[in-house]
Amino acid sequence: MRIKKNKPKRLKGKPKKILEQKVLDRDNNTCQNCGAVFEIDVHHIVYKSRGGSDSVGNLITLCRVCHKLCHDYNIEILFGDTGWVFRKPESKLL
Questions:
Q1: Is there a contact between 23 and 59 (Cβ–Cβ < 8 Å)?
Q2: Does the global pTM surpass 0.90?
Q3: Rg of the chain over CA atoms, in angstroms?
């Protein structure tokens, strides 16, 4: 017998657009890693596949380049004393 996993449901349509716009407004349409203001994506800090939520507090704006780097290198994103911290799992700061 196979046990079904409960996959997190993704927001779609208008609710997704409203949430993304809130995050874009909060972050001034700016990449929170490099400061770019073009090709901005909304990224989950804790991935949905790891139990992260579709909440404003779990979303951050990144440019396409930084967004790709986060996924390709499994970058952790934390909020520290001086703002957002991006680091590799081995705790090396980027």
A1: yes
A2: no
A3: 14
CA 16 – CA 79 distance, rounded (Å): 24
Can you list the domains of the chain with their CATH numbers? 13-87 (1.10.30)
pLDDT tier, 9 (very low <50, low <70, confident <90, very high otherwise): low
Answer for the pair 61, 46: CB distance below 8 angstroms, yes or no. Answer: no
Conformation bin of residue 29: beta by default, left when phi > 0, alpha when psi is -120 to 50: left
**Structure letter (DSSP) for residue 93:** B
pLDDT at position 13 is: 79
* pLDDT for 14: 82
